Structure of NAD(P)-binding protein:
Amino acid sequence: MPSYVITGANRGIGLAFVRQLSAKPDNVVIALVRNVGTVDELKSLNRSNVHILQADIGDLASLQRAAAETAKITGGSLDVLINNAAMLPNERDALPLDGYPAGQEQLLADDLVALFTVNVVGVAHTINTFLPLVKKGSLKKVIVISSGAGDLDLTLASGYETSGPYSISKAAVNMAVAKYAAEYKPQGILFLAISPGLVDTATRALTAKELEDAKKMVTKFKKIAPNWERPLTADESVEMMLKVFDDLTPENSGAFLSHKGNKEWL
């Protein structure tokens, strides 16, 4: 009975992971959510192999409680940890690093620190908290959902100068994954940072400005992927990522790959 913990499991990509993994009755799926008041879609799955626990990756104590509850559910082990929860870009995402308004330069520091705190420190705390269970598992895999926005080559080739704080946090977490892989390869624990591709997870209609910013981003990305046609759905992305997870070996542990298992980010 393979066991999975998924952070940020109440919507979007996280919910799609729960939906697809729990479709196999033998899988034990632990869905971690920051707010247990927003789990209607998880509950609507109505699957006995899905266990919903509260945990915020920015709150170490809540992670420790969730790990203890997970141990009770699984008998003290964990096969796969999927670090999906993250802080997403805010309304200043379309600004370059030198484009913050005069007199509001502190906002740049605030954004950098906030995104790093959640997307790097929060992920590291999550991994450290659940590693004792992973060490006792059978599959021994730790996955971090990253972003192609954190890839240096994509940034330079496309001229993608915006989304600085978010991109920097994702580049940093990719290095964290490599550090864990370097440490735990001798123990047979495999790590992977993976980009889900450009995925449509919008839960509301975009504003005119958001649509314009998205068009500008896509124009830049099409410099490196001229045949790209549309964003993936969450389920399409997850189906592809699960195949990459299955193919993870000691040889590519610590890598940063796309949903295609290579460096094609779109």
About this structure: The two ends are 33 Å apart (CA to CA). The chain has one domain: 3-258.
